[in-house]
Amino acid sequence: MSAPPPRVSASPAASKLHATAPPPFLAAGRGRGRDALVFAAGVAVATAVLVLLGSSASVVLAPAGTSTSSLLVASPIPGPDDPPRTFYDDPDLSYSAADGHHRLTGWDAKRASWLRSRGLLLRRSPEKVVMVSGSQPEPCTGEAGDHLMLRLLKNKLDYCRLHGIKLLYNRDFLHPAMTSYWAKIPIVRAAMVAHPDAEWIWWVDSDAVFTDMDFSLPLSTRYRDYNFVAYGVPKDMERKSWLAINAGVFVVRNCQWSLDFLDEWAQMGPAFPEAHARWGKVFKKDLADKDSDVACDQSALVYMLLSNRDRLLGKEKAFVETEYFFMGWWGEIVDRLDGVAARYDAVERRRSSPELRRRHAEREHVLYAAARNAAVRGAVPGPPGGWRTGWRRPLITHFTGCQPCSGGRNPTYTKESCDVGMRRALLFADDQVLRAYGFRHAGPLNDSVLPLPFDYPAADNLFILGRKQSKPELVVESYASTTSSCVTYTLVPNVPSYYDHQDGCH
Ligand SMILES: *[C@@H]1O[C@H](CO)[C@@H](O)[C@H](O)[C@H]1NC(C)=O
After folding, report:
1. Rounded to an integer, what distance in angstroms lies between the CA atom of residue 404 and that of residue 140?
2. Structurally, how many domains does the chain consist of?
3. Do 172 and 83 fall within a single domain?
4. Any residues with Cβ below 6 Å from ligand 1, and which?
5. For ligand 1, atom 7, which residue shows the shortest CA distance?
6. Could you tell which of 423, 440, 445, 446 is best to mutate to test the pocket of ligand 1, judged by most ligand atoms within 8 Å of the CB?
7. Cβ distance 192 to 253 under 8 Å?
8. What is the pLDDT of residues 224-271, one digit of tens each?
């Protein structure tokens, strides 16, 4: 995003604080003389009104850009700490993605102005992220559907806590027609307006599981020049399959380009019934593998991006990630997770990596994650974030087609494979989280936990396949499938060193 220079609102807030002390945004900057004059006039009027109203009421000035003579007297607003006026005070501001009458324009300047008014403009490193996910307003109808939704939410909560990301979980249809898979667009757009301090909004479908708690999105490096990133498959993009780009996980920069992009996407949705019906037929005709003529959010995204490559793909526009599991399909992943875990354990067991085994506070997670990523880089093949070849942890394992809430699975998958796969992925992630609390699960599909000995997983403390691991450097080559788990990790109980270090209280 190349944000135009911020414009400072000429309309001051009218609290008592601001009547005596100018707000910080007036203190510096070029070309603000006129603003200061308008401010001074506003203060004079506001002070007069305050005198008339007494201390229990305050005033609201007219929206930015109108003259101070149209001063409005309104109901009480927050008093002494009332900060400068911003775009939020504009009565025409719309949060809606499907509101043809109130397009949000000039967002980059509005956002910059808000950040400046709160003293946040220069403090945007690391870039702030708000993750947004959600599920339907009603209870799930599938067996244990609500329990699964809770576990899937817990997984996102864990990832966000570890990475200092705010999580917004939504269960409302913000536009009555934008239901089901279309519901994400209104909430993502509203989140951009509600979080001007966030540089990025990261949408993650409810049925996507974080399976690498160490990985941080390369937002300020690889994605620095882009505004929208989703996962895609090059060969499917070539033949314009509606499955070529996945709409279930995407990250979008909080800027005007993105608002316009989301509006364009939303306009193919059910909030615009005639266009929606027309687009459904176009997608069925033009996109490979599409056998329904109902326009879904993903066909709309694929069509939009692939039919407008020059306009929408490229720098300062959209980017399709094809090199790691920004979002991986569960069928390609879950049976390999035990093999991934074994390789990470082997790296941590090495005599040369005592720092990776060091216990630490959860708030230091990102530091230890970086050290672990550096250690596995040469030892475990594959790109960070995981890939179908190699054994790095996949960032996201997406259970597309399993429909955990409704239970209405894609008939080509069995209930067993979906359920076992999901439990496997969730426990795989939970073990990474529980580590900071001194525990891990008793096995890949076992809900019981075991305490971790000091210096875990050093070979002295660990038995594999019931035998003490003789060669600590050895990578376990065999791995379990989700249906026939054969590699199990057994911790030796009562390892003295663990208890020797319980010296926090006396
Ligand atoms: C899970 O692990 C616990 C503790 O090791 C064990 O007692 C239990 O039998 C295991 N459960 C299953 C289903 O394997």
Report:
1. 8
2. 3
3. no
4. 442-443, 446, 448
5. 448
6. 446
7. no
8. 999 999 999 999 999 999 999 999 999 999 999 999 999 999 999 999
